[in-house]
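Example 3.2
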Amino acid sequence: MKQQISRFSPHQNGKVVAVLMAVVSLIVLIPFFLIASVAGVGERAPFWIVFVIPIVYLVFGYLSVVIGCALYNVFVPILGGFEYESTSKT
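Structure, written as tokens:
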């Protein structure tokens, strides 16, 4: 059965993606800074950047998803939504 997504909730999707982006950036940044400090490269980059980058990712991730969802909701009546096929298990 083919179905189409008729609307995305901008705020809800923005919250989820923003938090995921912030968490993933921490998962990547902390080991990166630890390895860089052991290698002697970390002295050039201040440690506070580990806290700033996830916040930047959170804000820009939220804004980009909200804008993307809003644009999707505007163009859905014109172009049709994402189409997917699903089956029910019995």
